[in-house]
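TASK: fixed-backbone design
INPUT:
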C-alpha cells in the first residue's frame, strides 16, 4: 500500500553541480515544496552589500539580522519559486558575480548560519519539502528520510554555470567562474561552522557524465522507495 507520509529530502553538495535543478525536479514530481537554502545566504549577502554592513557589524550586533525578511513565492504559472528579500523579488540580483564572490565568506559567520537554520527548520516542519544546500542533511535536518550528496568535476560545473548566466543575459567569464567555484569549494569545506561534508547516511550522486533527466529519474526512484517504506 502506498504511504502518504511526507518526507524531507536533503540535497547537499558542491557549488554549481545542479542541486537546485534536481531538487526542483523532485519537488515538482512529488508535489513537495522546494527551498534553495543557498538563495537565503545570497539574500543576506545582498542585504549586507546594500546596507554597507561588514561581517564584524553582524558579529557585534546579530540583532541587525532581524531586519532581514526572506521568503519564497511561486511565479505566475506556478512553476518556479522566486526569492524575496523584504518584499522585493531578488531572484536575479542574488545570482550576480558580486554576490557569488562574497557569499561563501558571509556563510562562515555563525550568527548568520544560526539565523537561517532556524528559518529553514521552520519551513520544513510539515515535511513534504526538498531543500538543497551544504549542511541540510548534516545540520538542518539530520533526520531527513532521504539525503543525497551531489558532486561533479569543477570544469563541468563552471561550464554549466557559465551557460546559465549567459542564458539569463548576465555577464560571465569562464575562467572567473572556475576560479570562484574552486575558491568556494575550499571555503565551504574548510569553514569552522557546519562545513560541507557528506552525511554518513547520504547517497552520493556524481553527475559529471549524467544528463538532468537521468539524475531526476534516479533520484525519484530513491525518493519513491523511501516514501513507500514509511
Ligand atoms: O548553493 P549556492 O551556490 O547558491 O550557495 C551560495 C553559498 O551559500 C555557498 O557558497 C555556500 C553557502 N551555503 C551554505 O553555507 N549553506 C547552505 N545550506 C547553502 C549555501
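OUTPUT:
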Amino acid at each position: 500500500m502506498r504511504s502518504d507520509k511526507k518526507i524531507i529530502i536533503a540535497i547537499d553538495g558542491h557549488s554549481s553541480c545542479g542541486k537546485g535543478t534536481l531538487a526542483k525536479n523532485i519537488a515538482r514530481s512529488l508535489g513537495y515544496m522546494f527551498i534553495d537554502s543557498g538563495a537565503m545566504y545570497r539574500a543576506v549577502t545582498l542585504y549586507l552589500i546594500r546596507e554597507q554592513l561588514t561581517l564584524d557589524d553582524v558579529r557585534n550586533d546579530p540583532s541587525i539580522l532581524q531586519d532581514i525578511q526572506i521568503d519564497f513565492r511561486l511565479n505566475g504559472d506556478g512553476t518556479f519559486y522566486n526569492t524575496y528579500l523584504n518584499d522585493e523579488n531578488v531572484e536575479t540580483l542574488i545570482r550576480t558575480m558580486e554576490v557569488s564572490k562574497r557569499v561563501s565568506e558571509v556563510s562562515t559567520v555563525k550568527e548568520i548560519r544560526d539565523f537561517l537554520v532556524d528559518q529553514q527548520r521552520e519551513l520544513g516542519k510539515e515535511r513534504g519539502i526538498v531543500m538543497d544546500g551544504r549542511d541540510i542533511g548534516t545540520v538542518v535536518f539530520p533526520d531527513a528520510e532521504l539525503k543525497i550528496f551531489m558532486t561533479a568535476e569543477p570544469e563541468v560545473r563552471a561550464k554549466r554555470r557559465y551557460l546559465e548566466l549567459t542564458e539569463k543575459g548576465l555577464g560571465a567569464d569562464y575562467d572567473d567562474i572556475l576560479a570562484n567555484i574552486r575558491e568556494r569549494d575550499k571555503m565551504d569545506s574548510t569553514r569552522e561552522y557546519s562545513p560541507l561534508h557528506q552525511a554518513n547516511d547520504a547517497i552520493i550522486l556524481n553527475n559529471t557524465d549524467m544528463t538532468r533527466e537521468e539524475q531526476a529519474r534516479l533520484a525519484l526512484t530513491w525518493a519513491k522507495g523511501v516514501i513507500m517504506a514509511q
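COMMENT: The chain has nine helices and eight strands.
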